[in-house]
């Protein structure tokens, strides 16, 4: 049995509130305790309050962390990342900024095709080493859980390899990982022109094998007319359902409403991206309560200007989620504070709305709303001490690592 | 006498090249040494090359730093910052994002007026403490020199107080500081409606006193029709010249070409911002070689979309500089890597162009081109070891602190 007390938190942001994802006015309920204190027992929150309230509960050998006036927040839950890949695309990024089109890069074997080739060629150990570097970046921003997608293998063997890397890193306990199988991220070269054959392969060979090994909780598909159109995407997701996996969808990144309609139809847990979503798509998502996962860092990094209509989604009563979309192509950032900054400056969300989207709402989108995403008695003691006196500073000061100490299950991991 | 050797730099970016600010094709000359090594003696660069080349020069007690494959770059020179102020404006930032106009905020005493009030009320020690926090943020991004402006005092006493804080921090040696007097940042409340009286006060009382104490190297003025119009700005700058100060100008942030024309007329060292500059202003700057200091982080943080025309400036043969504009109102970031990211994604500069703008060109804009901004024999050993294998990663991965070790004059400061 072990106890940890954190006190002198200038603000303890608990996110305490109703046991459901937050919408509308609830997005502003951060449950802030000024000069707050947090008591942890055996990895879970025992109590929150003032120092005077938790001191009577302290046992003689309790560890003490003096937050010295800093803001303490629940660990961010980053519900959309692609953290396992070989190499990076810094050179291609530069070419794209100089006006070379993505199609041109893809035609000569660049872009995702290059990452797939390199990831297939990499050993499990090489991928683990790269992913551990990125893991530290997530922690430095105060993230304690990520949803981690495969999708740079696109063959049974290499997708399993990626999912094993996610499992290995998750088991190390320094960053919680929720694995998602994304075999339908792109059609690999060997199936070029034979999308239905690849979809069959994903649906009938890859998904059952992934499920048999317990390597994924969710299945995702990149639904776009020129990648996996609605019909093919649906076949993948139906197979995922049959295998007992939850469903997430890359929807409407470039084309309006097909993906969001599919997400509503299959009652996906989330529809992710939604930059192009129009009124019809929004209404479809709202009708069945699919959670939108918004990825402003990919809009920024691609040099685009159309951000998802977060305000419209909130007005439709949707429980929005914010995530990094960390990946080597369109969103090379692992920083949730950067996403909060983009949400403020480009999407006009308040810091409270963004933080709810990045913690409790994200936790619910991963079926973990009862375990993480807030600091309430009984929940996992996942939290970060930030270099900030007020939670609003996390969205205001930007371009920096804000976390100074990060705990997962009451254990310091950064 | 002390020696330090750095080796196994995956890339040693020396910026070695002609002894003048870089324009056009020279912006791409980074002088990269693959698997490079750097030898430092008594705080200055003794040699650069490969490990084999510097090893014969090593003395028995030399300190060794193994960069383990990381990229080593000259410390960034951030040539436009406002780092000394009390409080912050996180609450106002949120209001502005929610649609409250800056004019409305200013009318009720907010905005810069609030920062001035709080900065006047703060003790020198309080300001030092706040500035030391921000100093660490600069270092974490690999910055080793900043130009530091006053301008939140707007009275003789409080402007001197701010400049003393800059002097104190600079003397601590953990971040080089080049002080700039910006008494003409705004007209203070007590001179409201009497701009000419305030300009007289700045020109005839403040500037001579600042110069007498040796508290500034440069004088800056916020030249905008509704702040300090060209005539008033010129009176300030003429006084600065008479007092022996160099001249920098906040020019064309919102209104085209007045500021840039003035900058050309008075042969300012730099014209800063230039988001609104048109063909006429560009031609004026180019005719006399004023260095443009571009501040994309303020465009981003204000939620605006008009970035300065960096490409046009390069084509005009101008030696562009990139800087953070760190300040609590329009640009709450101290991160030069964040500026490189904005330059890439929003302004379409290459990483090489940006890094030249953020090092050697910036050094020249501060009259220090012979001392800092590159790693060449005889220059100060100011450098950073970054979490990057290739310099292009600094502009590509974003929203993170990239420096893992920072040295100023051969001494580790972070």
Main attributes of the structure:
homodimer, 414 residues, alpha/beta, 16 strands, 22% strand
Please, could you describe this protein's structure?
2 copies of one chain form a homodimer. The first copy, chain A, has 414 residues and is an alpha/beta fold. Helix content of chain A is 36%, strand content 22%. The first copy, chain A, contains 16 helices and 16 strands. Chain A has helices spanning 51-54, 90-97, 102-107, 112-121, 124-140, 156-171, 195-212, 230-242, 258-265, 279-288, 296-301, 310-315, 336-345, 351-358, 360-365, 393-396, and strands spanning 3-13, 32-41, 44-50, 63-66, 71-74, 76-81, 143-149, 176-184, 218-223, 246-251, 270-273, 291-294, 321-322, 383-386, 403-408, 411-412. In chain A, the strands form 2 sheets. In chain A, strands 1, 2, 3, 4, 5, 14, 15 and 16 form an 8-stranded mixed beta sheet that branches. An 8-stranded parallel beta sheet of chain A has the order 6-7-8-9-10-11-12-13. In chain A, a hairpin with a 2-residue loop joins strand 15 (403-408) and strand 16 (411-412). In chain A, helix 9 (258-265) packs parallel to helix 10 (279-288) and helix 13 (336-345) packs antiparallel against helix 14. Chain A is globular, with a radius of gyration of 21 Å. At the A-B interface, helix 2, helix 5, helix 11, helix 13 and helix 16 of A face helix 2, helix 5, helix 11, helix 13 and helix 16 of B.
């Amino acid at each position: 049995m072990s106890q940890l007390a954190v006190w002198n938190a200038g603000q303890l942001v608990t996110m305490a509130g109703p046991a459901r994802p937050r919408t509308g006015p609830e997005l502003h309920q951060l449950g802030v305790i000024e000069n707050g204190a947090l008591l942890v027992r055996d990895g879970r929150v025992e109590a929150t309050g003032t120092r005077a309230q938790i001191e009577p509960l302290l046992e003689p050998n309790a560890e003490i962390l003096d937050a010295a006036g800093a803001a303490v927040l629940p660990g961010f839950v980053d519900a959309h990342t692609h953290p396992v890949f070989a190499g990076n695309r810094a050179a291609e990024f530069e070419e794209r900024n100089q006006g070379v089109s993505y199609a041109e890069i893809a035609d000569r074997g660049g872009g995702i095709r290059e990452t797939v080739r390199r990831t297939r060629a990499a050993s499990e150990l090489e991928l683990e080493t790269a992913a551990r570097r990125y893991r530290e970046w997530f922690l430095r921003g105060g993230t304690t859980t990520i949803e981690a997608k495969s999708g740079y293998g696109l063959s049974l063997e290499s997708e399993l390899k990626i999912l094993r890397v996610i499992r290995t890193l998750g088991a190390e306990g320094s960053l919680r990982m929720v694995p998602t199988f994304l075999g339908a991220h792109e059609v690999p070269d060997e199936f070029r022109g034979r999308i239905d054959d690849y979809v069959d392969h994903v649906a009938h060979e890859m998904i059952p094998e992934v499920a048999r090994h317990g390597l994924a909780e969710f299945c995702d598909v990149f639904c776009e007319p020129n990648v996996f159109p609605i019909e093919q995407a649906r076949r993948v997701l139906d197979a995922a359902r049959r295998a007992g996996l939850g469903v997430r969808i890359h929807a409407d990144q470039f084309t309006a409403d097909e993906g969001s309609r599919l997400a509503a139809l299959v009652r996906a847990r989330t529809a992710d991206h939604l930059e192009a979503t129009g009124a019809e798509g929004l209404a479809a998502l709202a009708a069945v309560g699919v959670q939108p996962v918004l990825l402003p860092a990919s809009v920024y990094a691609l040099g685009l200007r159309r951000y998802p209509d977060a305000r419209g989604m909130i007005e439709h009563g949707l429980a929005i989620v914010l995530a990094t979309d960390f990946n080597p192509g369109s969103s090379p950032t692992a920083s949730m504070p950067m996403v909060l900054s983009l949400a403020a400056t480009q999407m006009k969300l308040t810091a409270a709305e963004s933080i709810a989207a990045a913690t409790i709402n994200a936790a619910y989108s991963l079926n973990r709303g009862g375990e993480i995403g807030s600091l309430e008695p009984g929940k996992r003691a996942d939290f970060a001490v930030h270099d900030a006196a007020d939670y609003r500073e996390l969205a205001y000061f930007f371009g920096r690592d804000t976390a100074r100490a990060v705990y997962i299950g009451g254990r310091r991991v950064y």
